[in-house]
Amino acid sequence: MPPRISPPLLCYVTDRRSLGNRSDLVARIALAASAGIRWIQIREKDLPTRELLVLVQEAVALAARESPPDSPTRIIVNDRLDVALAARAAGVHMAELSAPVAAVNEWLRNCVSTNAFMVGTSCHSVEGAQAAERDGADYLFFGPVFATPSKAMFGAPQGLRQLENASHSVKVPVLAIGGITAENAHECVAAGAAGIAAIRMFQEAGDLPALVARLRAAP
User: Fold this and answer.
1) What phi and psi, each to the nearest 5 degrees, are found at residue 109?
2) 175 phi, psi to nearest 5 deg
3) Nearby residues of 16 by Cβ (< 8 Å), 6 or more positions away
């Protein structure tokens, strides 16, 4: 298990459809960066490539402008390595059924100078987490930890015990995802997670800076 990261990593996963429109999403990205959320994953799978590229470019510019220079917000793109590289994002997040992490890393090593470019992936078992680390993943999402409609397709919730097992079985950061709330986030960190990732918690927060401060505080 890697040393505990303090404060915990917070990753806002976007879903513009639940916000209403694109302009609301852009405003939420800017607010998230200024509030202290250090990772933002652009997860707009249905957008055409050109529209997605423009959105990610805008998010990268907003993150650079709104977050503090000593702790910049990093923009990660879901699944689309081409868009992530073209927009100069900080990384790409591969779903469990996306291109294999090992293949992505091999391509990056052979074709692109990426420096600190991150490659992460989603895992739903301890074995999956261990395999992803062997393949070179820089971080992992593990879940769903708690029940949530958006992750119902992945089966029953894994629970805190499985999160703990996964977090202790690898050295890369593990972020808990699935049903994360302000009330249970610290339980995930106490179980060994390096941080938490969420859609609704960050998008629906009435006072996002206050929520971030609460989540970043020690349990």
Assistant:
1) -65, -40
2) -105, 130
3) 22, 24, 25, 44
Q: How many domains does the chain have?
A: 1
What single letter denotes the amino acid at residue 212? V
Q: Does 194 fall in a domain?
A: yes
Cα Dmax for the chain: 45
pLDDT tens for 46-68 read 999 999 999 999 999 999 999 98
User: Could you read off the pLDDT of 179-203 as tens digits, one per residue?
Assistant: 999 999 999 999 999 999 999 999 9
Q: Which residues of the chain have pLDDT under 70?
A: 1-4, 111-115, 149-155, 218-219
**Domain for residue 104, yes or no?**
yes
Would the pTM count as exceeding 0.90?
yes
Q: What is the CATH classification number for the domain harbouring 164?
A: 3.20.20.70
Position 2 in a domain? no
Indicate the DSSP class of residue 156: S
Q: Beta 39-42 vs 74-78: how paired, if at all? A: parallel
Residue 109 structural domain: 9-216
Amino acid 108 reads L
pLDDT tens, position by position, 143-156: 999 987 665 565 67
d(CA 208, CA 201): 9
d(CA 21, CA 181): 24
Residue 207 lies in a domain: yes
Measured in degrees and rounded to the nearest 5, phi and psi for residue 159 equal 85, 170
